[in-house]
Amino acid sequence: MTSNTSIQGVQTPSARGLLKLALPIAAGMLSLSLLSLIETIILGHYDQVALAASAAANYVFFIFLSAFAGFAIAAQTQVARHIETNKRLAHRFVQISTIQIVSCALFLITTVHFFKTQIISIQVNDPTLIKAGADYLQIKSWSVLPIAFLMALRGYWHGANKPKTFLLCLLSSHISSAVFCYLLVNGKAGFPELGLNGAAIANLISISVGTCVLILLSRHVFKKASDSQTLNSSDFKLGWQLAWPTSLQQATFAVGTAAYMAIIGRLGITELAAAHLLITLSLVLILPVIGIGMAATTFISQSFSRFQESKSEAGISQQWYKLAITLACSIVFIIGISMLLLPEKILFILTDEVDVVEAAYWSLLILAPSLLFEAFAITTKQSLYAIRQNKAVMKVLVITQWGLLLPSMLLIHLSGHGSLEIYIVMHAAQRAINSIWLYRTWKREHKRQLPNFDPSLSDIHKTN
What we know:
By secondary structure, this protein is mostly helical. It folds into two domains: 1-29 and 267-464, no CATH class; 46-243, no CATH class. The chain is built from 17 helices and two strands. β1 and β2 (10-11) form a beta hairpin. α1 runs parallel beside α7 and α2 packs antiparallel against α10 (233-265). The longest helix is centred in the N-terminal third of the chain and has 37 residues, at 87-123. It is globular and about 55 Å long. It starts with 5 loop residues before the first strand and ends in a 15-residue tail after the last helix.
């Protein structure tokens, strides 16, 4: 379909309509990933010890951040719900989310201060990596505080349908991160050469700059929130209730990813650095698919709420799903072909360490086609969110990660036959299983939900 016609207020499925919503979402996520990518490239050209140590610390850092990611989503949901009818209540919930996230941030900073060495030693067993990773994590942990403010205010600006303000602040973070990371890691322009610690300091500076800009732009939110009635325990209870399901889901995935890297880390520094490059690369390349999937969530949810108990509804929601799958897989197919044709050139963009490139070469060739399964699974997962099947999605992803992938990797490692290529093949197999299982769930639940769908709950996926 090439036009954006409407039926009773619902947009007719079209590639243009889907991309119009998906591209801004993908751009926002890409801007967040650029911070990690810039640091990876600079450290990749510095030395492999710095790259491997940052990999170990960053996956721990990822777990910490995921533990309170739900507060940002809760803030976004409540702001979107009340911004037009009760701005004071919307601003008040942002204040609640900010207090809760900052409290979590202070707890995490304290935990890292006392247990940084023990935390890194879970990931790697090389003394050099443990020392470098612990120092890096100690410095970077302080960036959790500005990130806490950033996430709470992201919820407000996205919920108020003003994402450009948030993107502007992220752009300032990216520019300062690129400049300071290069200068401090390599000791350029009169700055001392700080190596890996310089990257952590650069990250702290860049996040702080972006957060300060966002706080200045959001000062009216806190002013109006302070003018409302005093916060009480029921307000904070509501915040926790809305936030913890998403935080738990994100933390489960993050811990699984860290466990995946910990097993690979036992192979050696070179293999860990190569795996870090591959995962960072795949996370960046898959961002357009995530944007398409999230856009599909919105449109499928809208079609269900407008066409309850209607045959035309089933057709429209299914058309959105098929369109999203087609676009996502087409984009990934083009990306995968590029990876297969130019593997060495792509890897040398990320690092000039020859042994790391050699370790990652065959794994990259395995990774490229598996991204098709990942695109299919992500789009189907987001479509299932639209019909309130969050628990079903969690069951599939937790079982395949914790029940299949990680135990199998551990058994192979204990048998002494582990290698990066074998682990990447197993990860690709998990992605294939995810795509098949989620698709079967979609077919079953989409058909079953039609006569029972309650439009008042059509936004439940936003809080899960």
